Amino acid sequence: MKIGDIDLGEGAILAPMAGFTEPGFRAVCARIGAGLTVTEMVSAKGLIHNGEKTLELLHTSQYEKISAVQIFGSDPEVMAQAVQSPYLEKFDIIDINMGCPVNKVVKNGEGSALMKNLPLASKIISAVKAAAQDRPVTVKFRLGWDRDTKNYIDFGKMCQDSGADALTLHARTRADFYSGRAKIEAWEKLKNAVSIPVIANGDIKDKQSYRQAFDWADGVMIGRGALGYPQIFADVLDKSVDLTLMEAVLMHINELLKYFEPERAAINFRKHAHHYLKGVPNSREIKNKINQTDDINQVIELLKSAL
């Protein structure tokens, strides 16, 4: 799959996930096989005001050969200014979030709320495309606001007409959030309606669902299926895994320590530890201990005792 002039090969992509796709996790997934990584979503307003928490989201690792930054906002001019920020120069692709369902985002007319306002969404895409110059622009969105307003076909056509180079469809509505089964047949319908690449997202959890998605889309984005198991990228690509789960954990933590103080890294890693420990017998006690410590060395020893 190609996005603009960027060749992603088979197109195994790590999805942007707020709170999870920090530089440590992105590094591990890229090391194991993700052909493209995407940051957590970044506020355009926060970026142009050089907000400290916003800039922290922009760290990248040497392992990320092709990387995208995902930005969100509802003001075309602000979005364009954000794209021109020197902090974004290192990113190969600009991704626009028009699918986030959380209340604090949609109440500001951002994220999936833009699926109810196609004229504004079009202005944002056009402004970002102009500001991005030669870099590809992608748009991530959902089926629609709810089951009665599934407008993803019209929305996808609008994105293409406004200058988008590729589309990512999370096959759920905003009302669904992350519950229920993704309506995977929508990927094929969207692909048949546009001429730019379509990336499938939603319920990609193993090799079978990955291959099935490729029947209907040009690329596949893996999100929650990678949490606690970054080896999924090797699995779906039929590649050998040269990192054990514990080695992946250590790499993840070591990458975090390049950007954050040890106490901050320990706290940040708690949510990941819960996923790495999924399915491990008697893991509840270990999870509780990890939640109660900000000593990263203790976190490592606790995980070594279980994995």
Q: Kindly report how far apart the N and C termini lie.
A: 36 Å
CATH superfamily of the largest domain: Aldolase class I
What Rg do the Cα atoms give? 19 Å
By CATH, the architecture of the largest domain is named: Alpha-Beta Barrel
N-to-C SSE series? Answer: EEEHEHHEHEHHEHEHEHEHHHHH
Overall strand count: 10
Strand content: 5-15%
Largest sheet: 8 strands, parallel, barrel
* Helix percent band: 40-55%
The figure for the number of domains is 2
Question: Summed up, what is this model?
Answer:
The chain is of the alpha/beta class and 307 residues long. The protein is built from 14 helices and ten strands. Strand 1 and strand 2 form a beta hairpin.
Overview of the structural elements:
There is one protein chain. The protein is of the alpha/beta class and 307 residues long. The chain folds into two domains: 2-236, Aldolase class I (TIM Barrel), CATH 3.20.20.70; 260-304, no CATH class. It is built from 14 helices and ten strands. The protein has helices at residues 23-32, 44-48, 52-56, 76-83, 103-106, 118-132, 152-161, 185-193, 207-214, 232-236, 245-256, 262-276, 284-291, 296-304; strands at residues 2-3, 6-7, 12-14, 36-43, 67-72, 93-98, 137-142, 166-170, 198-201, 219-222. The strands form two sheets. It has an eight-stranded parallel barrel, surrounded by six helices. A two-stranded antiparallel ribbon has the order 1-2. α1 (23-32) packs across α11. The mean pLDDT is 96.
